[in-house]
Amino acid sequence: MRLQEKISNSLTPRDSHMGMLLRVGELAPEITARAAEIEAARRLPPDLVDRLKSIGLFRMFVPRSHSGLELDLPAGLEVMKTLTRLDGSIGWLAIVAGVGGLFAAAARPELYQQIYQDGPDVAICGSSQPAGTAERVADGYRIRGRWPFASSCTHADWIGGFCIVTDGGKRVPGPQGKPLVRAVLLPAHDWEIEDTWHAAGLKGTGSHHITLRETSVPDIHVFDVDAAPRLSGPLYQALRQWLPLLHGTFSVGLAEGTVDDLLALAHTGRQQLYAAAPMRESEIFQYELGRISADLGAAQAFHEVQVASHWRRALSGTLNDPDLLVEGARSAAWLATTCVGIADACFALAGSSAVYDSSPLQRRLRDLHVGAQHAHAQQRQYVEVGRLALRRAAEQAC
């Protein structure tokens, strides 16, 4: 066992968590200084990937049995939020790193051992859209497809995609009459990456399309992410229940960073054209800042309550509940909308200086709007939230 892994295994989760936050703080000035470089490259520079790997980003949710940190979910989310507060693209990629570790936990044991055979610092990414097909054949599956939004694919070690299972060219039925969907996970070199990520925001995430062309895949590389947990511990009970919480973490962290940037601008003594006083002395500015602060505080509190509620359920072994998935979706949608509103208000308060590429406020604004377009944060999630509210009310009335 390598020295770094021995040290990792000797630390408690709290030690690991606090150590990661300390090292993120040390890296913060460099991240801020390189924001324009990250956007221009449309990916995370390899040396920064290595720095984040050394911090432990890719091993946060890997079990201690495989030399990972196995952080409690709230602790891992705090690390992700801290990175998001510094830079939206890096925060998004930190969330992908966490999801990758949880996603792999659903893989078959033989595949899991293969993924982590050389250590826990493995970058895993993919696309959750069922944009491929997995045709059953004698020795496994024949996979083909083209998947969008594969964030982190430019530095991934393993890449996954969701597929509709077919047999003889016909879709195999799954639960509730829907098509049967399975995940495929392969080494990154087996995938083709198409350079398609020219986007309005989150420019540095390298969220390109990925392709497989008639690829023969053994059974062990195809699995059901909703199957019974293969690993013990509260983190690994159910993947889908965690996903909305990670999106909420992104929204809140980026909103906090937006307010940080607005306050930094105000403290420069900036006075806008035709204004009677510098920004920080203006009652109009103070009023709007107070309203923004209230919105941010509400978002922070809501997110903390939702995370704590989910984690309690995980500790009690009752996380895999469809109602919790709806509750998480409710928080993700509300937080996305609220935090986009915070970014819009900060951008407007900053005045004309915010329109330049050099302003972090315009980047925060774009990143939050793009993040809010994700399926887990979309307003249509409120339909299921409303149905759940009606069902609970009817149950209470009985």
TrEMBL record:
Domain Acyl-CoA dehydrogenase C-terminal: 246-378
Transmembrane segments: 90-107
Molecular function GO labels: acyl-CoA dehydrogenase activity; flavin adenine dinucleotide binding; monooxygenase activity
Keywords per UniProt: Membrane, Monooxygenase, Oxidoreductase, Transmembrane, Transmembrane helix
Pfam short name (any one): Acyl-CoA_dh_N
Residue span(s) of domain Acyl-CoA dehydrogenase/oxidase N-terminal: 29-96
Protein name: Flavin-dependent monooxygenase
